[in-house]
Amino acid sequence: MSRRPYTAVLIVPTGIGAAIGGYAGDALPVARTIAQVVDTLITHPNVMNGAQLYWPLPNALYVEGYGLDQFAAGRWGLRPAHRNRIGLLLDAAIERDLRWRHLQAADAARATLGLDLMDYVVTDTPLGMTLRRAQSGATWGTIDRPATLLRGAERLIQAGAEAIAIVARFPEDPRSAALQEYRQGQGVDPLAGAEAVISHLIVRTFQVPCAHAPALSPLPLDSTISPKSAAEEIGYTFLPCVLAGLSRAPQFVTQAPAQASDLWAEQVDAVIIPATAAGGSGVLSLSGTRAQIIAVEENGTTLNVTPEALGLSVVRVRSYLEAVGVMVAHRAGISAGAIAPHLPHLQPLSKNSPEMDDKHSRR
User: Fold this and answer.
1) What is the pLDDT of residue 194?
2) Residue 41 in contact with residue 31, Cβ under 8 Å?
3) Closest residue by Cα to residue 153 from 67, 211, 110, 70
């Protein structure tokens, strides 16, 4: 007997110090595990990117955050792609030697992984990235010259790019307390929020897959860094994971006609989120669908936006391993309550129950 494919969305917001997913690709093991029990996993670069490390997941869709929000709201669909031609956009502020390191990484991706990259573009002026930190500890940033970013991306798209990889030069202070905390597996990624601003602008303007890799000078050797941050210590560039992700990122469907392979929000079966980060646009949109929202308690963040505070109906679990069990039962059509040691008796349905009120409101 055939059954409908099971689709899950894994969200770990960037720049909020998530205990899992707030560092250098440390949520990738979670994505790999979930991908084993679903037909399709939809997730975003913050989950999949691990600097020079990455892991191909044939059933995972790599979707930029703004595009994921549009998908969750039902405005855009996702169309799986066998291969994307990637345009590389480099910030004019990147120094000569550091630019060559990134170009060598791109050439290596072509020669070793067989990725389809076209000739690159350098922005006509420096982007001028500025880093900011909110009082909560969450990070964000600004682009002094967004128009130069858009002009560079437009040149690539007009030349045939189907996805855009951006490398921007970021300000750096190797001695900053925030950076030291991050290298020790504590605090918040100081760049993450600003990176999201870059990719959001491109996707919102051009509706093409996009991801960003920061250009930074190599840091001094520190033998005490956390394993969760170590992926960012092993080379000159974070570009390889971005190119690998974009190479098969789904295209956005923004107008008819649709194709049979396109995915839409109403096809999502489960959404997995940190239990204190329930206020994102994508989560709120998907809470209005039939998708089961699973809130993971052990993935703490700097936020305190709980599902209960927003009136969302969720399944709370302690760990991602427990979340996987909930999805397996859900996919099998088994009530999670039936697996508990005690099962209460059925009770008469109250005339004032939410279910009854909802039925009358639809008449």
Assistant:
1) 82
2) yes
3) 211
Classified as helix, coil or strand, 10 is strand
pLDDT single digits (tens) 26-73:
999 999 999 999 999 999 999 999 999 999 999 999 999 999 999 999
**C-alpha span between 138 and 16 (Å, rounded):** 5
Report field, pTM of the whole predicted structure over 0.90: yes
Instruction: Establish how many alpha carbons lie within 13 A of residue 57's alpha carbon, considering only the half-sphere containing its beta carbon.
Output: 28
Gap between the Cα atoms of 360 and 338, Å rounded:
30
pLDDT band at 359 (very low <50, low <70, confident <90, very high): very low
CA–CA distance, 108 with 104 (Å, rounded to integer): 6
DSSP state for residue 48 in the 8-state scheme: H
Answer yes or no: are the C-beta atoms of 14 and 20 closer than 8 Å.
no
Task: Phi first, then psi: give them for residue 265, nearest 5 degrees.
Answer: -55, -35
- Residues 76-131: tens digit of each pLDDT: 999 999 999 999 999 999 999 999 999 999 999 999 999 999 999 999 999 999 88
DSSP result, 50-115: BTTB----TTEEE--HHHHHHHHTTS-EEE--S--PEEEEE-TTS-HHHHHHHHHHHHHHHHHH--
Three-state DSSP class for 233?
A: helix
Task: Identify whether 257 is preceded by a cis peptide bond (ω within 30 of 0).
Answer: yes
H or E element that contains 161: none
User: Please, which pLDDT band fits residue 354 given cuts at 50, 70 and 90?
Assistant: low
Q: What are phi and psi of 331, to 5 degrees?
A: -65, -35
pLDDT tens figures, 208-229: 999 999 999 888 888 999 999 9
Residue 320 three-state SS: helix
Residues 197, 168: contact at Cβ < 8 Å? no
Q: Collapsing DSSP states into helix, strand and coil, what is residue 258?
A: coil
Within 170-319, strands assigned E span 210-215, 251-253, 270-274, 292-296, 315-317
Return all residues near 76 (Cβ < 8 A) that are at least 6 apart. Answer: 67, 70, 207, 252, 253, 254
